[in-house]
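B., you asked whether I could sanity-check this one before it goes into the benchmark set. Here's the sequence:
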Amino acid sequence: MIIVENNTIEEIPFLHLVKEEYRNEALPTCFFVHGFTSAKEHNLHYAYYLAEKGFRVILPDCLEHGERGTGKTEYELGKRFWNIVIHTIKELDILKETFARDGLIDEERIGLAGTSMGGIVTLGALTQYEWINSAVSLMGNPSYVKLAKAQLGQLEKMGYENPFTEGQVEEILSELSRFDLSLQPEKLNGRPLMFWHGKNDKVVPFQLTYEAYTELLPFYEGREDQLVFLEDQKADHKVSRDGVLKLVDWFVDHLMA
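And here's what the prediction gave me:
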């Protein structure tokens, strides 16, 4: 039987899924991060499939989301988007260290994944943590600086005033460059990474993510099977059932073998 626990560590609410018979063992573990305006409970289907395969699965609520929501509008949250991304990256290490200290994680078999904003978090976290053994980005993007500039451009096209001064924009982009995987691809160090993206995605543009993937390919010369881009011709900004199952298969193949 799979158990689902709702816990909190250092003010970080999270769901914890594991097969009851394995709950006190050091297991292969996956952290899964939800998308913008979403919450941890919305990704329980991923966690269930992974737990069924024998993984311990941790789904945190990001800052200003889920149990941590403060009633902000989507526009207000959007102004804090990158702050939330970076804050979540830092909190992942707190969660990992806590479970590792309790002897509940096989530290040679840790996966990280997420949808949309969670995929962006995943790709940024790869620049910070060598403890991530394998990762999956669903509708994410590793090019933080390019994506942030594109977001500001989209705001202007939609008739919104840029909420940041020129100096603030420069400061934000400088901070984001520290987490931008496209600017430091060597930090992947050959770790298995899968991208999934809908061809018709207008929220996180498909082409920008695909370009980033092609720029990473030279760093996997001779090991191209460790860097995979799955393109769904029909999908927009929603992961198909096939995409969900491909994620599960990826982690089984790279963390359970």
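One thing to flag: The longest helix spans residues 81-101. Otherwise nothing jumped out at me.
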